[in-house]
Amino acid sequence: MCLIGDIGGTNARFAIVEGVGSSPQHERTLKCADHYSLVDAIHAYLESIPHTMPETASLAIATPVSSDQITMTNHVWDFSVTETRKALGLKSLKVLNDYTALALSLPYLRHDDCYKIGAGDVVPEQVKAVLGPGTGLGMSGTIFIGDHWLPLQSEGGHVSYGPINEQEQSVIEVIRQHHTHVSAESLVSGPGLVLLYESIAKRDGIKFEKLTPSQVANSAINSDEGPAAEAVIMFCGILGTLAGNLALTLGARGGVYIGGGIIPKFGSYFGRSPFRDRFANHGRFTAYLSEIPTFVITAEYPALIGAAIAISDEYKNLGVTSCES
User: For the chain, how many structural domains are there in total?
Assistant: First the structure.
C-alpha cells in the first residue's frame, strides 16, 4: 500500500494505491488552509478512510523540489522530507513537483480523461507537454526514452512574459506600476485572472468590485462586455501563446495538454476563446503548430496517477526521496 498526494496552493488531494499501476482508492480533497502542516493534513485524511498509515508515500507538490527542505511557492507549508517521513512513521517518502507528476500521467490518460481543442493529431512516442493555471501556473513535459517516459522537472510558469499586442501592453503597463517582474504565472493563474480584471478596470477608469477568480470567470461567461469579459479573453489568449511557446521549446508533437483547476470550469467557452488561434499564431511556425493537437484534461485526479507511477524503480532519482536507514 502507498499513500499518494497532489498538494497545490489551495487543495491537497490524497488517495491510496496498492502498488504501481493500480487505480487510486479513497480519494479525498482537503483545503490546505484548514491544516497547520502537511503532516496534519495527512493525519486528517487517514482519519476519514478505513486505512492505517501505509509504509510508503509519494507526494506531488506545487513547488520546486531540489533538496530535503521544501518551501511551497503559493502556500505557507515549509517542511523537511526526512523529518516528515519520520513524523508519519514511513519507511519511504518521495516528494516531486506536481507538474512533473502530471507530465508522468499523460501517456496513461484515457480517451475520456480529456477533450480536444482544434485540429492536429498526436504523433506516437513524441514529446508531450503540459501546462495549466490554478493557484499558480505549472509547466512540464515528458519524453519517451525507449522503455518508459521521462518527465521534466520544470518551473516554466515563472518565465517572464512580454505583451504581443497593444491591448496587452496597455494592461501590463498598469501592472508594472506595482510589479517589477511580470511572469507568466502572474497573469495566467487564479490570482492572475483577478489581476488582469482589476488592471483593465484601472486602465479604463472603471470602479470595480473585489471578485474571486471564479466570480471573474462567471461574469465573463455570462456577459460579453466589461473588464471581466476582457480579462478572460486576454487570459485565454496569453495561455495560448504560452502553450505555443512550450510546444516549440519541447518539440511537443505528442500533444499539448492543459491541466489545473481553472480551464475545465470554462466549459465550451474555452473552445470559442482565442486560445487555439494564439497557440498556432507564431509567424513562420504557424503551420508547424497547427498540426499539434491541444487537449484540456478533465480527469479529476491526474497528478495522483503520476505520483503513483513515480514509485516505480525507473523514477528513483525523480524528486527527493527519504528512506529509513
Answer: 2
Q: Compute CA distances 285 → 40, 156, 257, 292, whole Å.
A: 49, 21, 19, 11
pLDDT digits (tens, 9 = 90+) for 115-148: 999 999 999 999 999 999 999 999 999 999 988 9
End-to-end CA distance of the chain: 20
Reported as a pLDDT band with limits 50, 70 and 90, residue 98 is: very high
Q: Are residues 221 and 237 in the same domain?
A: yes
Query: Per-residue pLDDT tens for 39-83?
Result: 999 999 999 998 888 999 999 999 999 999 999 988 999 999 999
Angle, helix 98-105 to helix 302-309, in steps of 10 degrees = 90
Q: What is the largest CA-CA distance in the chain?
A: 63
233: CATH:
3.40.367.20
Indicate if 19 and 139 belong to the same structural domain.
no
Query: Looking at the predicted structure, is the pLDDT value of residue 279 above 90?
Result: yes
CB atoms within 10 A of CB 255: 22
Q: How far is Cα 59 from Cα 61, in angstroms, rounded to an integer?
A: 6
Q: How many CB atoms lie within 10 A of CB 59?
A: 28
Question: Which residue has cell 523537511?
Answer: 80
Distance CA 189, CA 262 (A): 8
Give the C-alpha separation, 163 to 242, whole Å.
11
272, 118 Cβ separation under 8 angstroms: no
pLDDT, tens digit (0-9, with 9 covering 90-100), for 157-209: 999 999 999 999 999 999 999 888 999 999 999 999 999 999 999 999 999 99
Residues spanned by the domain of 44: 2-103+301-323
Q: What is the CATH number of the domain that holds 44?
A: 3.30.420.40
Q: Please give the Cα distance from 20 to 41 (Å, whole number).
A: 24
Residue 46 C-alpha cell reads as: 487517514
92 and 141 in a single domain? The answer is no
Listed in sequence order, the DSSP H helices in 209-253 are 213-222, 227-250
Report the interhelical angle of 166-175 vs 227-250 (nearest 10°): 100
